Amino acid sequence: MFSSLDAYKEKMETLIESLSSKLKDTGSVCWQIGNHVKDGSVTPLDYIFFEIFQRHNFILRNRIIWRFNFGLNARKRFSGRYETLLWFTKGSDYKFNLDPVRVPQIYPGKTKRTEQGYKPSGNPKGKNPSDFWEFDAKQSFEGQPVWDFPNVKANHPEKTIHPCQFPNEVADRCILALTEIGDTVLDPFAGVGTVVSCAEARSRVGIGFEFDPRYLMLANERLEQARLGELVVRQSGRLPRRPNGNEKVAQVPQEWLDLG
Ligand SMILES: C[S@@+](CC[C@H](N)C(=O)[O-])C[C@H]1O[C@@H](n2cnc3c(N)ncnc32)[C@H](O)[C@@H]1O
């Protein structure tokens, strides 16, 4: 627990400095961060980290908005439903593999006029997933509710900053796009091992630090599953599920209709 935001910033800058010296010139840093909320007052943390990384000569390649459809419902402000993921590279000669993370075209039948007539305008391998990522809570966490133990939120040392584990797909997309087989992926705040287990599942070397023994135990279990090829990883590149309106939960309840 940090006594103040300044103490947190100072500690994180020391960490980033030491990470930087270990990172290869072709390497990347993905820093996933939300807001610090105290007494209803919101401080967006990504701008703080942008300044720190810039001071250490990192280059920002994308500021990705990661949107999710779950979380606390606020009463006196709009409910927070996104976090940011800052992708920095150490230099200009960085790895970026687009093909493994392409997503299906929304309109694959779209055409453009060419000298040979009308031809499909998109890429048959799919489209660039863009810097706005959407993940579905139900699909992401069903079957693996790893944060589901009592009081975890109250005990969490950074509960106002990172309230929960993130879906495999966030880590998986970064790992596939920014690293190659055999590369090393480090997560200094490993939690239940989402990043390290995805790294192992994708034949990278995953290293994680975690000081809470409960999370560490789960992380080790998931790492073992990844090594055995048994980790449930949602296939990257699938579009979030959209309700078709026929589901029971999509119907307006009779009680509300009765209100007139
Ligand atoms: C938000 S969680 C990360 C969740 C992770 N992305 C996942 O999907 O499981 C942050 C984790 O960092 C751990 N942590 C915080 N400070 C740490 C430190 N100085 N050393 C090791 N672990 C730390 C916390 O115990 C917590 O589990």
TrEMBL record:
Q: Which GO terms describe its molecular function?
A: DNA binding; N-methyltransferase activity; site-specific DNA-methyltransferase (adenine-specific) activity
Extract the ranges annotated as region (Disordered). 109-129
Pfam families assigned: N6_N4_Mtase (PF01555)
Q: Which Gene3D superfamilies match?
A: Vaccinia Virus protein VP39
Question: DNA methylase N-4/N-6 domain spans which residues?
Answer: 3-221
Which EC class is this protein assigned?
Answer: transferase
> What's any GO biological process attached to this entry?
methylation
Question: What EC number(s) is this enzyme filed under?
Answer: 2.1.1.-
Swiss-Prot/TrEMBL catalytic activity? a 2'-deoxyadenosine in DNA + S-adenosyl-L-methionine = an N(6)-methyl-2'-deoxyadenosine in DNA + S-adenosyl-L-homocysteine + H(+)
Membrane-spanning residues: none
Q: Which UniProt keywords apply?
A: Methyltransferase, Transferase
Protein family membership: Belongs to the N(4)/N(6)-methyltransferase family.
Q: What is this protein called?
A: Methyltransferase
Organism, by scientific name, is Sphingopyxis indica
* Organism taxonomic ancestry: Bacteria, Pseudomonadati, Pseudomonadota, Alphaproteobacteria, Sphingomonadales
